Fold this sequence. Notes:
The complex is a heterodimer. Chain A is of the alpha/beta class. Chain A is 31% helix and 18% strand. Chain A has three domains: 2-364, Aldolase class I (TIM Barrel); 381-476 and 610-648, Rossmann fold; 488-607, 3-Layer(bba) Sandwich (FAD/NAD(P)-binding domain), CATH 3.50.50. In chain A, the strands form seven sheets. Chain A has an eight-stranded parallel barrel with strand order 3-4-5-8-9-10-11-12, surrounded by seven helices. Chain A has a five-stranded parallel beta sheet with strand order 15-14-13-16-27, with helices on both faces. In chain A, helix 1 (35-46) packs parallel to helix 2. Chain A is globular. Helix content of chain B is 31%, strand content 18%. At the A-B interface, helix 3, strand 7, helix 20, strand 26 and helix 21 of A face strand 7, helix 19, strand 26 and helix 21 of B.
Amino acid sequence: MRLLEPVDLGSKRxxxxxxxGPHETNLGIGRALSARHVAxxxxxxxxxxxxxxxxxxxVHPGDWPYERAPLAAECFAGWSAVADAVHAHGGLALAALxxxxxxxxSAYSQRVLWAPSRVADPVTREVPQEMEEREIAAVTEGxxxxxxxxxxxxxxxxxxxxxxxxxxxxxxxxxxxxxxxAYGVDRLRFxxxxxxxxxxxxxxxxxLGLRLGCDELAPWxxxxxxxxxxxALALGPLADYVVxxxxxxxxxxxxxxxxxxxxxFALPLAGALRRALPAPVxxxxxxxxxxxxxxxxxLTDGTADLVEMTRAQIADPELGAKLARGAxxxxxxxVLCNQRCLVRDPRNPLVSCIGEPSSxxxxxxxxxxxxxxAGAAAEGEVLVVGAGPAGLEAARVxxxxxxxxxxxxxxxxxxxxxxxxxxxxxxxxLELLADWLEAECxxxxxxxxxxxxxxPGDLSSRAASGGHVLVCTGSVPGxxxxxxxxxxxxxxxxxxxxxxxxxxxxxxxxxxxVDDPVxxxxxxxxxxxxxxxxxxxxxxxxxxxxxxxLSRTGDLAPANTRLARxxxxxxxxxxxxxxxxxxxxxxxxxxxKEAPVAAAVLVRAAPALPDDALWDSAPAGARRAxxxxxxxxxxxxxxxxxxxxxxxxxxxxxxxx
Amino acid sequence: MSATGRYRLLFTPLALGPVVVRNRxxxxxxLTNYAQDGAPSEQHTAYYEARAAGGAGLIVTExxxxxxxxxxxxxxxHGFDPAVIPGYRRITxxxxxxxxxxxAQIxxxxxxxxSMYSRLPLWAPSPVADPLFREVPKAVxxxxxxxIVDGYAxxxxxxxxxxFDGIELQCSHxxxxxxxxxPATNRRTDDYGGSLENRSRLLLRLVAxxxxxxxxxxxxxxxxxxxxxxxxxxxxxxxxxxxxxxxxTGAVDYxxxxxxxxxxxxxxxxxxxxxxxxxxxxxxxxLRKAVSLxxxxxxxxxxxxxxxxxxxxxxxxxxxxxxxxxxxxxxxAKARAGHASWIRACLSCNQECVGRMGLNRWLGxxxxxxxxxxxxxxxxxxxxxxxxxxxxxxxxxxQAAIAAARRGHQVDLxxxxxxxxxxxxxxxxxxxxxxxGDLVRxxxxxxxxLGVRFHFGQRADADLVxxxxxxxxxxxxxxxxxxxxxxxxxARVLDxxxxxxxxxxxxxRVLVVDELxxxxxxxxxxxxxxxxxxxxxxxxxxxxxQDLGVTLDQETWWMxxxxxxxxxxxxxxVTGLVEREDGALSVELQQHTTGLASERVVDWVVCASPPRPxxxxxxxxxxxxxxGIALERVGDCVAPRRAHAAVIEGDRVGxxx
Lengths: 657, 657
């Protein structure tokens, strides 16, 4: 396939057309790339990625956008180690270089932000300093110095960021550059000077890439696809490749949105650049490209020369290798949830993946943990109760590590709550993870027995005959409020299950109140579903904003926009205190004032409780994982399912919850 | 009167079991985010030592985790890891050099945490999700309760080995012990749930186990919550019962107090200036009446006389002064020496202390640039005394003058107005923000003591500065209001500053436009509502005053707004304004999420908009000052930001001359 064919980037040749793009990981130590980074990138190179681009390093110490943001001057050793690790697997390794300008933060540097003009970032509201020529020269020199350092470290080149969080883009855009000097009259001037200085510092051998925001989704003054193409025409020939990015000015993470935005949304930008730019300049397509078929199509139809599949390779570090051995169907899907891989968050979470929780934890050996046990001789059988994400992952890993495995579930389908969650608006790709887990289990010979119940006696006899028991029975709904029957009471899960089977119409006709004390994707997606089904919907949140927990996935502002457009009424800072008489009574958390909302249905999106009915009578030595321990997210379910499987027979002492 | 004679009890010794404190001023436990990789840092040592050197009677460190399942924020001290002991020893040695006892607070936060860092299930009495973290915890079983007890004992042992004089158990606002004590989070039906006796069983086991470990030479204290301020939570009556039970053990040497739940009502725990001083003293007072153990009172004590008064009135035996000693480490020493007016009084603004904690950043202070930086050595004194001219006596200029004068330079400070303070003084003119004005008072007092020569009412133009013949010039001329584009020349469109400076007096219907997201819009709205105006605040952001949440001012704003009938409109921009013939203003609004347009007819519009730097003098001087004369600028004339940015810039520049 085209994806696996080599491609030239300047004077270097990448072994294939798959690129792992720069992204925040929080794997750094201080502002240096760390051994954690090296292990993370090496796993992708070993897994068949042709070109690895490391986490964007700031080229000037005044740019310190997040606590663990790499600083080029401190990256030499880390870059060297990444270069060696990637080269050992035949890949190319490049350093991303950047400066966040007014989209940075003064919290760590305790210094003023620099920007072309004093236009406050719409999210942080921080007013930057308008750069004087002295500061412009310092940043330009910073790029050159960093590029020279990267080349000297043994890397194959650098990629200059002019897309999201980028001072270069701020200079290119009429939204953020209102200067009247030479850098405003010619808004390309700064980027051109940076690219020329970078090229001069690199010399002719190393690769120079340009990550370019070609559409800011703000056509009144921002970069548009048309002006983006003109910018690319002017700047592209200064580089060996150009990555075509949609970088919305008013949505920080809009370049890597979650599943509410269809995959491949930036392909037209890449196609336009491919048509416009001279052939020696390679064009890289990106933008939620998570399916190999889409990537291959983009290469064969002339949209691009390479494809960036970053999140796809966080979800499956062996994507390229699996393709190369003809096992494409074994690739673990990226579900575009952004729950664990988007880590530009002040809490500094480490990059990871709900389906592949060892991503980001390669440095502590987790990436190889399953492989290390794969050859072990396991004599015996494992019974897994529950075929949700915890149970299926436990079964998959137990099978991979040599056990005979049987999974039983009382429901007619495997996949547990993943199936229902996938019915939520914009969340349909979650189903792919359930499909993959089930298919992998079957491929590995796991016996999956559905519509089958087990009782404590089954577990005891199993244990008595030397078998191992894993309890992954998931959760039961939390309590619903008392009511007089005038308002139909439902859990969010029930509504999702109705939607999944096309039975939303079974809900009592009339207005719906969604009570969402959590603020994650569940309550929001249920409100969206019901609004789309034509119901008048009121969403109750105790917070000042609906969906507060979505800030982690980048969907907070987009979700609120969708809710507003769908006509969902949001009552903030409120709690449900009473239900009855066709009315849900709300109370303002801070004033105590009460107000009624007419409702035919009240949907409660509250946390569930562990289903521990079976656990309470489980035999000694049984283990449990996932929601049966405490109802949380898919990430914990998969992580604990895997740990439980690896711990069977005392083979691994890792955290038995 | 003798220095200590002003205070009857504040500077008298007191025995806390085996430990005698020399005065009643406690630097009680608070988070700092100074830990590195789970261990205490050099910054911890320097931070606590500065307060010991400054005369604090007792220091209680931030909490140390007693178990790997407790890792709620990244920079927590992992007390359960023996690797912490050398760091403990560094801290205690440094503090003991000044004759100050130091206790360690040990804790398990239970369900008030996150599995983000530990990747282990949270432990709690019952599977009740915390209101802030919203993660369902695992209900601990009997073996796990034993493990918790063992963990506390082990960590207490580490603390004793590390040289601490006492142990404090955090059982008040964020703790698994609180979780067990509170009916809101304890739904157990075993020996640890139900009756108060059962709910306190864990606490009493911990006290016994810790006392057994540490022996009789180490003090043991318990911090209790007197009122959780939540539905179904712990009440004062419960707290008194628990206090008596603790006293009855004979193992406890003192009680500390607290109010609220950190993850539900934090705005009442680390209250800003919106909450009256000593607001939580009633809890200490009630406990002190119930038991004969020494009791620590806390909550907005920022003045030594106020603290002494609380002691004299019998409300408490010791007083926790945290923020007061962050702002001025020499709080106690200055009071004892009879120089209370020299104390850099805390503003209770919460901007850089509390406000940075939730954002995973190191603890600092708006007016003490050394806070959080104590471990960084000060630069060597300059070789020559230089003559420095500072222009502008706002927060930045004053701090530059202070820093330069502290370095021995001769400083002349010019200010066009007849008094110092700039925008801080204006902001503090709103009654509920008056304490911010202490910044002006503190800076003026310090600058005066250091011999800065003030020239108030004298506008320094370039001629004056050039003629002054200084060796160095610092321009701190601030910023000027800038009218939004849509305001045109309408006379009834004002900036917040114009209202607060009483240059106009809006009446009737007023629309406040919040583009800054901090106190500007909300405090002017409060002020005008109190004058009888009808108020609406509109903002393009998702929340009015979006950053008030960081300083814990949002809840009080909501209560005040509700009481005054101030309405809030979010996600909305101003698209135009027309002056009507009747003198009223027609304001066109657009909800940017939906594009929906609307109109408001009001009498006045007040804008909280980014001002523009007043940098004319700096530009002129850049061309006119002789080479060799240092020219610097600080604060809003670089880029308009908040007071802290001006203070740290002023400090940095002043110290660098």
